[in-house]
Amino acid sequence: MATAVVAAAPAAGPQEVMEEDAPLPPIAETGAQRLAQNAPNVRLRPDWLRANAGGLEDWMSADMAAQTLLERVAAGDLRSSCLGSLPNGLDRQHDVRVEGSHLIQILQLVDISKPQSSDAVPMDYDPEQGAFGRAGGPTQQPQRPEANESMGPNDTLKVCFTDGAQVLCGIERRPVATLRTAKPGALFVLSGRPLLRRGLFMLEPQHLEPLKSRT
Question: Are the CB atoms for 207 and 196 separated by under 8 Å?
Fold first, then answer.
């Protein structure tokens, strides 16, 4: 059976970062539009953009405003700032490839090859605390080895992530070095037509790239 292809959601337009009843400051609108051009399918939530327009000055260039917005996105929870760009319902898809480039944020990292170890306990990202917390429990510092340095070539990492609108999961099909040195809260670009099987992304090194610090 041929593998299906799932197309990316359309890029954000000006109407997705504006509200009719209260126009945004021009520099905020300009920065959001430039960010949408430079970053992969970044679709900012109108309420988040309005709340984070402070500090954007008219003398700023479009690139400066976009960089400021990106830094604020990176410092928080993508579920609060972005509308998401991945197609809906991917958790119910099978044997499809996902097209396009998408900004995602890591929520949980689990070494599923060691089910009896502390690594098997999901570690959530708490944007307010800037720290980890066990799923369903209070926020605390992780007990797992820093940067996953203990993982070997035969270990397998499972990751849960969000594009801002939905939470999805994937597992390593081959070891992904950048993912093994990441922590929850990190931003990545998902691209390279990853394969999706039974709602799970089959991840390889070419599918994930850490978001660059500048747009």
Answer: no
- In DSSP notation, 100-139 reads S-EEEEEEEEEETT-TTSGGGS-EEEETTTTEEEETTS-B
Q: Tokens representing 14?
A: 């000006």
Mean pLDDT by 10 residues, the chain (215 residues): 51 40 81 86 91 90 94 94 94 94 94 64 49 40 45 85 96 93 93 96 96 60
User: Is 69 within 8 Å of 90 (Cβ atoms)?
Assistant: no
202, amino acid identity: M
The residue type found at 63 is D
Q: Which amino acid is at 126?
A: D
pTM (2 decimals)? 0.74
Q: Judge contact between 172 and 203, C-beta under 8 A.
A: yes
Neighbours of 18 (CB within 10 A): 17
The closest alpha carbon to 47, from 83, 11, 72, belongs to 83
**Integer Rg of the chain from CA:** 18
For residue 149, the tally of other CB atoms under 10 A from its CB is 9
Three-state secondary structure call for residue 212: coil
